[in-house]
Every structure is written in C-alpha cells, then in structure tokens.
Amino acid sequence: MKLLTVNFLTCAVKACRSSAASFPLHFQDAEVEQREMDYNPTFLANILPRLEWDAIITVAAELGFTNVPATKPDGNPETEEEQQMMRNLHTLLLETEVMEGKMVCGNCGHEYRIKEGIANFLLPNHLGKLYSEPS
Asked: Whole-angstrom Cα distance, residue 97 to residue 32?
C-alpha cells in the first residue's frame, strides 16, 4: 500500500464517518519497503492540491519520516532545494509502501490488517451492526 493511498482512506465503521478522529488511519507494526520508480513531477504537482497535508505529516512521522515540510509545497519548484524537496516527497508518497502491519482508527480503535501490501477493509457483520447508528 503506497503511502499516498492512506491520504484517501477513513474508517469504514458507520459511526466513525462523522468523527474527525477517524482520519487519518494510524499505522502500527508497519513493515515498510521502498520501490524505486521514475520521478514524475507532473503527477506530483497535480496530486498535491488534493492531499490533506496535516494527515501526510502525521502518517509520515508515525513511520519515521521526519523530513516532511511543515507547509504543503505548491508543486512548482523554483530552486534546487525545492526540487530536492519534491523528489523527497515523490519517494515518500509514491515509492514508500507498507507491506505488512495494520492501520488503526483513532476514533473506534478498529484495526485494518495489511498483508502483502493490501489492506483489508471488509468489516465483519457484527462489527457493522455494533457500531452503526440507530435507525
């Protein structure tokens, strides 16, 4: 599961949909791999406006990546330093994959297992009923 993907995921439990604590999901016991791919500055510039930056910072820090800038870059690097920062973001968001572990909801504590890079978001029937809002 690429780190970029986590920015678009929230807890699947119905009661968590209205809770800010259900996003982002938090990694635990994560095994991380980096798979090199061609640098794509156009894709990165186009995806940056769609990212919830505070969530990126939180998830990156949980995985030990502390060099994420405090403010979201605009995607148009002008200096060599800004270009290097964009390359670092490319590495973090697109080349970094969580292969094993779990993601945990900050609201209800439900754990989503990750196995071979794929997160399991299927909820058992009893959990969906247990946490659903009354009709």
From this structure: 6
